[in-house]
Specification:
Layout lengths: L2 H7 L2 H25 L4 H24 E4 L2 E4 L8 H54 L1 E5 L3 E2 L7 H15 L5 E3 L2 H5 L8 H8 L3 E10 L2 E10 L4 E11 L3 H15 L16 H16 L2 H17 L4 H16 L5 H18 L4 H13 L4 H14 L4 H13 L4 H13 L5 H12 L3 H14 L6 H11 L3 H10 L3 H14 L3 H17 L5 H10 L3 H13 L3 H4 L14 H12 L2
Parallel strand pairs: 3-5, 3-6, 4-6
Antiparallel strand pairs: 1-2, 6-7, 7-8
């Protein structure tokens, strides 16, 4: 008999395999338990030494001894078909299989536990890092400067100067700067610095005054620490109006010095233009912010006058693009005409000022909303963020784009940051509410929309937005009340259609659907997205896809985010939905 056959007959191979498996399990157990029991490191090494020493002994005993019903006895020559030999092999085979099961189970548990611990540790480290980064950012609000001029018509100048200074400071990564709407909510009111700090959750307040007489200006500013009302710095500038850009740069530099901020990059600078052109720009700013047809039209007129003086002023070109977006969004101008104008203005801005990030953001809006070219949109947003990582508009649009492709988590976090920077403004809650809706956090979405309603009670479609969140959250009676309170008939009938359907009231839902179609016909298919969503909620897939594609033809923003819209969840298992999403992603 060969040596291999003899080793096999005496079960040496089986004993060796069983020993190795047992040794591995014991080593893993020692490695896991030693730290938990606070044992010194030499204990694990000692276990390994004993197991290595025991291996040749196990091989020797397997060769020299035989397992019999009477116990372990010295090996004696036996036939290969000896019942005792067969029994020993069966026992060893069963033992090896059992040990392997234990080993595999331990390995899986160990890997899962390690991965879970690593994930938790990484998550904790990331949270701690983010917390440390956030806590290291100093917070500041630029309150609207007081107009000390004899002419109350100069209010636009003091407000515009404050807004421009706010925008300049917001480009500094180490500063968290409260947005304009919340900062300007204190305009004309009596308040203490402590009240401002508490309402806006900021550490510092920059306030000042402006006096203008012809071409002469006097600007006084002071930086105050909220915690103890201490004046960290103050100064006064008596200059010509044409030097206003230098003053802005100097104020930003003094703030950085007073707060002891260590800049990584150079201090951002104001974009310079002709004094007369800048005066027109400052007049246009509050008109754009007012967001009415008459105010935006007036702002556009002022900006076009500005371009006759300085056709290369990039901020004015971007503001004109914003005006065009407004006209397109409210159908005050043909959509194609408005978007092409916006594209032209934004492209001129990036050609003139390649380092001006806002120009790329405006081009991204056109690429996404009109061209439906998501690849180009992301490329433009990447460029904007490369130039200015603090550009919150670029961050928001990038997160929204990611949400349109099915992942709304980043959109939620960016929207929450916007709310933190602008807590007394309503619009950030509008975006947050929709982000939470896409993330299927319906109760939180309804709460965000309700906060919006508290801040802007007459805001268009806010009741409908609350109603949508309530329907999806299963609060049907409350949802009906919100839809009934919505002044736009289309929203009301759309809401009644989906809510009554969810309540099992088919006839009332059908009646509302008919009224919605009438409203749509009267408004040139203005309710295509709502018809698509209502049909989808009612399980009427053919009609839902009909209106989805109609909305796509009309550039209806309500259908371009279909991939993440919960109202289309019932279409997810239909292959036509994947085709529609692919068409959205391709921009065709």
């Amino acid at each position: 008999m060969s040596l291999f056959a003899e080793l096999n007959r005496r079960n040496v191979f089986r004993v060796a395999l069983a020993y190795v498996v047992v040794a591995w399990v014991l080593m893993q157990a020692a490695d896991t338990l030693a730290p938990a029991l606070l044992l010194p490191e030499w204990v694990t090494r000692f276990v390994a030494f004993i197991l290595i020493l025991g291996f040749p002994l196990a091989i020797f005993f397997a060769w020299a001894f035989e397992l019999t019903p009477e116990g372990i006895k010295l090996e004696k020559a036996a036939r290969s078909d000896d019942p005792i030999a067969h029994r020993t092999r069966r026992i060893l085979n069963l033992l090896i299989v059992s040990l392997l099961v234990v080993a595999v189970g331990f390995f899986a548990w160990d890997r899962f536990s390690v991965d879970e611990v690593q994930q938790q540790t990484t998550s904790a480290q990331n949270t701690e890092t983010a917390s440390n980064v956030e806590s290291s950012r100093l917070s500041i609000v630029v309150l609207p400067f007081v107009n000390m001029s004899n002419d109350p018509e100069q209010e636009y100048f003091s407000d515009g100067l404050s807004e421009e200074l706010l925008n300049l400071l917001s480009k500094i990564p180490q500063l968290r700067v409260t947005s304009r709407t919340s900062a300007f909510s204190f305009k004309g009111k009596d308040f203490t610095i402590a009240e401002v700090g508490s309402a806006l959750n900021v550490d510092h307040v920059l306030e000042g005054s402006v006096r203008r007489s012809g071409d002469e200006i006097r600007i006084t500013t002071q930086l105050i620490q909220v915690s103890d009302d201490a004046h960290l710095w103050s100064d006064t500038w008596d200059r010509k109006f044409e030097n206003v850009f230098e003053i802005q740069d100097e104020i930003a530099g003094e703030v950085v010095n007073a707060l002891k901020i260590q800049l990584v990059d150079e201090l951002p600078h104001a974009y310079v233009t002709d004094a007369e052109a800048y005066d027109l720009y400052l007049q246009a700013l509050p008109l754009i912010d007012r967001q009415t047809q008459s105010s935006v039209t007036a702002a556009e007129s002022l900006l076009l006058q500005l371009l006759e003086i300085d056709p290369d002023y990039a901020p004015a070109l971007c503001l004109l693009a914003d005006a065009s977006f407004f006209f397109a969004g409210w159908n005050y101008r043909p959509m194609e005409e408005a978007f092409e104008r916006a594209r032209s203005y934004a492209r001129r801005a990036t050609d003139i000022a390649p380092d001006y990030s806002d120009g790329y953001v405006k081009l991204a809006v056109v690429a996404l909303s009109f061209d439906r070219d998501r690849t180009q949109t992301q490329r433009l947003l990447d460029k904007a963020l490369e130039l200015d990582s603090q550009n919150l508009s670029a961050q928001e649009l990038s997160a929204h784009l990611q949400s349109m492709q099915g992942d709304s988590s980043r959109w939620v976090s960016v929207s929450m940051e916007r709310v933190r920077l602008d807590p007394l403004s309503g619009e950030p809650y509008w975006r947050l509410g929709h982000a939470l809706l896409r993330a299927r956090q319906y109760d939180e979405s309804a709460a965000a929309f309700r906060r919006l309603f508290e801040l802007i009670p007459n805001r268009t479609a806010v009741h409908a937005a609350i109603g949508e969140a309530l329907v999806l959250g299963g609060h049907y009676e409350e949802a009906l009340a919100e839809f009934e309170a919505e002044p736009f008939e289309g929203f009301t009938q759309y809401g009644r259609a989906i809510t009554f359907y969810e309540m099992g009231e088919q006839q009332q839902s059908d009646t509302a659907m008919e009224k919605l179609k009438i409203a749509n016909a009267e408004d040139a298919d203005g309710w295509a997205a709502q018809l698509a969503m209502a049909h989808a909620m009612r399980g009427e897939k053919d009609e839902a896809f009909k209106w989805l594609y109609r909305g796509l033809e009309l550039h209806d923003q309500g259908v371009t985010s279909a991939a993440s819209n919960p109202f289309f969840d019932k279409l997810q298992d239909d292959p036509r939905f994947d085709e529609f999403v692919q068409r959205l992603n391709s921009g065709n």
